[in-house]
Write a structure and sequence with these properties.
Blueprint (H helix, E strand, L loop, with lengths): L6 E7 L2 E6 L10 H15 L6 E5 L4 E3 L4 H4 L4 H6 L16 E5 L2 E3 L1 H8 L2 E4 L4 E3 L13 H9 L1 H10 L3 E2 H6 L5 E2 L6 H14 L3 H16 L2 H14 L4 H11 L10
Parallel strand pairs: 2-3, 3-5, 4-6, 5-7, 6-8, 7-10
Antiparallel strand pairs: 1-2, 8-9
Helix pairs in contact: 4-5, 5-6, 9-10
The protein binds acetoacetyl-coenzyme A.
Acetoacetyl-coenzyme A (CAA) binds next to helix 2, strand 6 and helix 4.
């Protein structure tokens, strides 16, 4: 794929697109040009039929150490409000295909929020999470207070947001924010995330998309609405060839061959 300045893209396994944030000298601080590239790559690869799932990771000592403080520090209220500063970060959440965050090193501020915008989080033992914005005279602005509260509950989110203290991979796992901590070894967390993405990419794409949409409804809708959303998506899959194939294959004791149709 294309050459970017602040990110790297590759296809490390069948059906998998890997995006690596690549500003290691600035601990992958999420500048506007970096996020623009990230959104562009996600849009391009979301539309690429050879891709079924994404892995997003950092380089060097960080996943991402937050929004770019040097870029932000002189901005005025008028500027950030008029230009809807950070609003375009949300584009990542309308990507259709699952995104797995493989978090190595610092995931602070916007970096923690970026991980929380992904669908699955795997952490290296070195992963350090936090919302240190309070130390900069602000609060999280990329969804941190909302998504963290839904992921780890009110009391912990208040503590993290108001004290600005970091939390470890082990804490994130104990609190249910990450699926698991992948044991030691350079690049292990990325390897594991790529393997998981490959598994997801090997399923019927329409069912995967419906599954993602249904789980996301749990975070955006009431239980009644969410159950309706789930049931309608479930019903809708009976219009797909993959439902016929998947169930026929089970009955015939063979492996399903997905048409993604
Ligand atoms: N923005 C811009 N540059 C950053 C950065 C950020 N968020 N985080 C790190 N950097 C830069 C440093 O300025 C430094 O650059 P120079 O070499 O040019 O001085 C380089 O990355 C390496 O960082 P350090 O020398 O500070 O490395 P360290 O190991 O001593 O400390 C750290 C690591 C504790 C993560 C420290 O870098 C740090 O505190 N970073 C900022 C974390 C933060 O406050 N994040 C929240 C940002 S606000 C936000 O994200 C708003 C939002 O909700 C969207």
């Amino acid at each position: 794929t294309k050459n970017y300045e602040y990110i790297l893209t590759s296809k490390p396994a069948e059906g998998v697109a890997l995006i690596t944030l690549n500003r290691p000298k600035a601990l992958n601080a999420l500048s506007t040009p970096l996020f623009t590239e990230l959104n562009e790559a996600l849009a391009e690869l979301d539309a690429d039929d050879s891709v079924g799932a994404f892995v997003l990771t950092g380089s060097g000592r960080a996943f991402a150490a937050g929004a770019d403080i040097k870029e932000m520090k002189d901005k005025t209220y008028n500027e950030v409000y008029q230009n809807r500063f950070l609003e375009d970060w949300g584009k990542l959440t309308s990507v259709r295909k699952p995104i797995i965050a493989a978090v190595n090193g610092f995931a602070l501020g916007g970096g923690c929020e970026l991980a929380l915008m992904c669908d699955i989080i795997l952490a290296a033992p070195t992963a350090t999470f936090g919302q240190p914005e309070i130390n900069l005279g602000v609060i999280p602005g990329g969804g941190g207070t909302q998504r963290l509260a839904r992921a780890i509950g009110k009391s912990r989110t208040m503590e993290i947001t108001l004290t600005g203290r970091n939390f470890s991979a082990a804490e994130a796992a104990a609190w249910g924010m990450v699926s698991r901590v992948v044991p030691e070894g350079e690049g292990k967390v990325v390897e594991e995330a790529v393997a998981m993405a490959q598994t997801i990419a090997s399923k019927g794409r329409l069912a995967v998309q419906a599954g993602k949409d249904a789980v996301n409804a749990a975070y955006e809708q009431t239980l009644r609405e969410g159950l309706n959303t789930e049931r309608r998506l479930f019903h809708g899959l009976f219009a797909t060839q993959d439902q016929k194939e998947g169930m026929a294959a089970f009955a015939e004791k063979r492996k399903a061959v997905w048409k993604h149709a």
